[in-house]
Amino acid sequence: MNAVVDRNPGKKGRKFNDFLTYEDKTFNQYYLLPFRFIALNPRREILVNEIGDFLIVDKGTAEKIILKQLDSLADYELYNDLIANFFISKDKIPVLIDVLATRYRTKKSFLDHFTALHIFVITLRCEHTCHYCQVSRVSEDKNSFDMSKRHIDKGIELMMQSPNPHVTMEFQGGEALLAFDHIKYGVEKAKLAALTHNKEITFVICTNLAPITTEMLLYCKENSILISTSLDGPEFIHNKNRHKKGNDSHQLALKGIKLTREILGNDRVSALLTTSALSLDFPNEIVDEYFKLNFGSMFLRPISPFGFATRNEKKNKYNTDRFIEFYKKGLNRIINYNLNGSSFREDYATILLKKILTPFPVGYVDLQSPAGMINNVIVFNYDGKIYASDEARMLAEMSDFTFQLGHLDTSTYNEIFYSDLAVDITEAGINESLPGCSDCAFQTYCGADPVLCHSTQGNMYGHRPTNVFCQKNMAIIKHLFELMDSDPKILKLFNNWVRGN
Ligand code: SF4
Q1: Which of 86, 116, 222, 389 lies 20 to 30 A from 370 at CA?
Q2: Distance between CA atoms of residues 217 and 156, nearest Å
């Protein structure tokens, strides 16, 4: 039998004292539970606990709580709020600790089923030459840039091995519709495989809509395929951002949206905005365009601050401060539409608000910890290479293959999803343990992005004070809290957004 032998009986060898030594005997009316805090403005601060419950309080409250200067009678309301929301506890271990544990598990339940989104880059061909295009697209006629049927088969085979019972097969390009026969092949094959593997599949085609035809849409209807398109705002912005011979990209997008709605229904087509440097001066015009076109929501989304997209520095590289200013103005315009009686959401705010105002998890890849790449999304490139995320593919187009996880010709499921590289990426994508994030009040609402850190700061872990992902999220989350704190009408409106009213 093994036993621990004390080689120096009688000698005090312990470096640290027992926990009880540190217990404050004077102010012991309550115990602290883990929570973090941050100043919201010169008057107010926000406290956030481990499961994302928050309290906006007067400046100095966190200090008072931590120094145990809170009085259960004099500070009756605050004291009880703090108890009810798991910031402090009357007992060393709260009586309702199991409730806290269940809510924590619920928040992280997006991890239960592993990878859902499988992106198939079905072709690199495109008839647009957008200056911010993430990939170095090739012209229409080069068939060698289509994904081979062999690779489509292998991608489907891997998708069927996902533990997730509900997977999404998303076709991207280039312009995906230029390889519509390959899409059809993939859909037929995946549907058959799903029967054997008992999986539900959602199909999505990402397209600029220029090549769409009635026949294609009828096929989409028959197979419940969703359409995701790009719309950068009114014609003068969209056509400048999205170069195309004939300068008719905007006209074709609008025509395509109309036709898609007629055949598939209003809710089967969504549009995504990319904010170029030009867009920054026109937040109101861009919001108005989406509103005018009867979209129920829009996503004020910045350009990825790296890769091919930023080769054209003048058009695409801009300071995060400028984007934040644009975002705030755009959001304000959207809020005003709502206050005037319309229903129209901003998607990024809605995702964050769902994390802030509800106990539920959110499936949005960019705001997860562990990060959504691999855990939630995987990319099969047209040439068979497999990447951790769409941004990882973008880097590879710049000859940086740091995030290539394998190849459809040679790699097994385990070699892709459980490789040393996959473990390294995941480790760098856990904001609970990242310097800066680990004690940030917004940790539960935010995420981590190892690809962005690697490409903008030289390593997967990054440095928060100079990190654009952090600067953007910190500013937007603070702004949402300030809006809710300043106007009860906006708090009510935000609650409606997350509940889909
Ligand atoms: S990225 Fe920034 S805002 Fe997000 S959790 Fe980390 S420190 Fe906080």
Answers
A1: 86
A2: 23
Tokens of 326: 């644009």
Compute the distance from residue 377 Cα to the ligand 1 centre, in Å: 21
Beta strands in 106-181 (DSSP E): 117-121, 166-172
**Other CB atoms closer than 10 Å to residue 148's CB: what's the count?**
15
List the one residue out of 208, 296, 214, 202 whose CA is nearest residue 263: 214
Cα angle at 311 between 475 and 244, to 5 degrees? 100
Cα 465 to averaged position of ligand 1 atoms, centre (Å)? 9
pLDDT at residue 409, rounded to an integer: 97
Q: Two tokens at 300?
A: 């004020």
Q: Give the DSSP H/E element, type plus range, for residue 203.
A: strand 200-207
- Give pLDDT, residue 490: 97
Cα–Cα distance measured from residue 121 to residue 116, given in angstroms and rounded to the nearest whole number? 16
Q: Which residues line ligand 1 (CB under 6 A)?
A: 431, 436-437, 440, 442-443, 446, 464, 469-470, 473-474
Please tell me the distance from the alpha carbon of residue 366 to that of residue 447, in angstroms, as a whole number.
7
Q: Is 43 exposed, middle or buried (0-12, 13-18, 19+ CB in 10 A)?
A: exposed
Mutate which of 351, 355, 446 for ligand 1? The one with the most ligand atoms within 8 Å of its CB, which is 446
Sign of the Cα pseudo-torsion (161, 163, 168, 174, in order): negative
Residue for token pair 């962005």: 452
Q: What is the 3-state secondary structure (H, E, C) of 413-453?
A: HHHHHCCHHHHHHHHCCCCCCCCCCCCCCCHHHCCCCHHHH
Q: Pocket of ligand 1, candidates 433, 442, 467: which has the most ligand atoms within 8 Å of its Cβ, to mutate?
A: 442
105-151 pLDDT, tens digit each: 999 998 888 999 999 999 988 877 776 665 555 655 556 789 999 99
Cα 434 to averaged position of ligand 1 atoms, centre (Å): 9
* Bridging pattern class, strands 385-387 and 404-407: antiparallel
254 three-class SS: helix
Amino acid present at 40: L
